[in-house]
Design goal:
Layout: H1 2-36, H2 47-103, H3 110-128, E1 131-132, E2 135-136, E3 148-152, E4 158-163, E5 172-175, E6 178-180, H4 186-207, H5 211-264, H6 268-301
Antiparallel strand pairs: 1-2, 3-4, 5-6
Helix pairs in contact: 1-6, 2-3, 2-4, 2-5, 3-4, 4-5
């Protein structure tokens, strides 16, 4: 009879130990989830959820790169727009001077205006050779030198301006399905060159008091200003595309964050509730085990 009691006691003890180990293991697991805030700490916790989370994180890495590309494109576009707006202001002022000198109401002579236009020419060349991170904005893919090259006389005065860039393009992936080239094209760069040379021609016409040439320059400058406005419209449309892509990328990233959270984060209220149940069960099991073991011991002694 004692052997039967001993065998039953051993079986109960083994079952009790296994049950307590399970409860204790689950208790520590839940406590870890509460501490970290995550339901899935390693892939084995929930292989399916872990696999989904890894996929979401891969998409987030792609979005991060798209966002970096979009930010660079936006920076290039903003710098380009600023430079083109500066060129437009310069062309507008040159056009005003051409108009004033033709009106006959100015008290200044052509030589004084020629000096001002010469400064406008320098400013136009400087704006058109603007750079972003040491790369010329309007050179196409030719980044080794300033695209608008000047020839100067012995006094340092510009006598000619030529374009030494190219019509190459460099597009950026700004989202999964969108690319953008933030740079101006070859045709736009040539129109910038024309605008600069129109300013140069006005200066020369004023220096020589050639009213016919001044009138021609005035007409040419009006055309150049319209061309520059067209370029600004094109750049503005690109800038809007980039900003839209950035907004969409940000929203997609946040949605993926929510998906990852839904798969791996712990539901704190539910986790705490389960932990309380496990702790209650563990305490009850220990108390029940103590009573049974005490009774078994008494029976064994008898």
């Amino acid at each position: 009879m004692s052997e039967i009691i001993r065998a039953a006691s051993n079986t109960f003890t083994t079952d009790l130990q296994m049950n307590l180990m399970k409860l204790n293991g689950r208790q520590f697991q839940l406590m870890a989830q509460i501490s970290s805030g995550q339901r899935v700490a390693v892939a084995s916790d929930d292989p399916a959820a872990a696999a989904r989370a890894i996929g979401y994180q891969s998409l987030q890495r792609d979005l991060t790169q798209y966002q970096k590309n979009a930010q660079r494109a936006e920076n290039v576009l903003n710098m380009s727009v600023n430079a083109i707006q500066s060129l437009k202001s310069t062309v507008s002022r040159a056009q005003e001077i051409a108009t004033v000198t033709q009106s006959g109401v100015s008290t200044r002579n052509y030589t004084d205006y020629a000096k001002e236009v010469n400064q406008l020419l320098e400013q136009a060349v400087s704006s058109s050779n603007s750079e972003y991170l040491d790369d010329p904005l309007f050179a196409g893919t030719a980044t080794s030198a300033s695209p608008f090259s000047t020839t100067r006389d012995s006094n340092g005065k510009i006598t000619a301006v030529t374009y030494v860039g190219n019509s190459g393009s460099a597009s950026f992936s700004i989202s999964e399905n969108a690319m953008v080239d933030p740079h101006t094209g070859g045709a736009e760069n040539n129109k910038m060159l024309t605008a600069i040379n129109n300013i140069l021609n006005l200066r020369d016409a004023l220096e020589s008091s050639n009213t016919t040439a001044v009138t021609s320059s005035q007409t040419a400058l009006i055309t150049s200003e319209n061309d520059i406005v067209d370029s600004l419209s094109t750049m503005g449309a690109k800038l809007m595309r980039v900003q839209t892509a950035k907004s969409q990328n940000s929203a997609s990233y946040q949605n993926l964050d929510k998906s990852i959270s839904g798969d791996v984060d712990a539901d704190m209220s539910q986790t705490i509730l389960e932990l309380n149940k496990i702790q209650t069960a563990y305490t009850a099991a220990m108390q029940g085990a103590a009573r049974v073991m005490s009774e078994s011991l008494m029976n064994y002694i008898r």
